[in-house]
Design brief:
CATH superfamily: Decaprenyl diphosphate synthase-like
Structural class: alpha/beta
Radius of gyration: 18 Å
Helix content: 40-55%
Distance between the termini: 10 Å
Order of helices and strands: EHHEHEHEHHEEH
Length: 237
């Protein structure tokens, strides 16, 4: 059992259940996403205050483009508005932003807002907030392999130098520690193509709470459960 003072350095969250939350209340799916965005603000603040070093949120997957265009447009506008309206607060809270995922086919407006937000927070030294946008872990691994091949062909990297540590440097998450804890809301118990390489030794926590209902106290509950886990990494205590 870990100490109660042992706070995970990096928490990753699959924020799931906005649509079902809305449906159960007779509301449009967009209402669920709006409530989910409010919850995101709360959890970011809670992570910062708890002393978490990095928080990665699965905001939009590469597979989410299959959803209705109206919903996609709403989500893109919501992200743009979220960054625009919260950037001063992020700077005040000493939070730096990082985005992972492929840029194409993200809207130009969103890409421009991302660039400005990352630049505005680059000198902050507190919580590292990483948003996975148009992200798929298999894509990430393929992209890493392509980069390694380019480095090898350009004689920047030898075969002997290609190991787990060097491979990690070619992933989107370069510069972040691997997640200690992966949380998924809504009752689903799947990884859904999220951080497949990085969560090799992460503790998994599944809750039936939909993301709009995942409060600060639920977040702390997940951390307390993590602190009760016996992490051995293949060894014996």
């Amino acid at each position: 059992m870990q100490s109660e003072n042992n706070i995970p350095k990096h928490i990753a969250i699959i924020m799931d259940g906005n649509g079902r939350w809305a449906k159960e209340r007779g509301l449009p799916r967009i209402a669920g996403h709006r409530q989910g965005i409010n919850r995101t603000r709360e959890i970011i603040k809670a992570a910062s205050e708890t002393g978490i070093k990095a928080l990665t949120l699965f905001a939009f997957s590469a597979e989410n483009w299959q959803r209705p265009k109206r919903e996609i447009d709403m989500l893109m506008n919501a992200l743009d508005n979220f960054l625009k309206s919260n950037i001063k607060e992020l700077i005040k809270e000493n939070i730096s932003l990082k985005f992972i995922g492929r840029q194409d086919p993200l809207p130009i407006k969103v890409l421009d807002r991302i660039k400005k937000s990352v630049e505005a927070t680059k000198d902050n030294t507190g919580l590292k907030l990483c948003l996975a946008l148009n992200y798929g872990s298999r894509q990430e691994i393929v992209d890493a392999v392509k980069k390694i091949m380019d480095s090898y062909l350009n004689k920047e990297l030898s075969l002997e130098e290609i190991d787990e540590n060097n491979f990690h440097k070619f992933l989107y998450t370069d510069g972040l520690p691997d997640p200690d804890l992966l949380i998924r809301t809504s009752g689903e118990q799947r990884i859904s193509n999220f951080l497949l390489w990085q969560i090799s030794y992460a503790e998994l926590y599944f809750t039936k709470k939909y993301w709009p209902d995942f409060t600060r106290e639920e977040f702390k509950k997940a951390i307390r459960e993590y602190q009760r886990r016996d992490r051995r990494f293949g060894a014996l205590n």
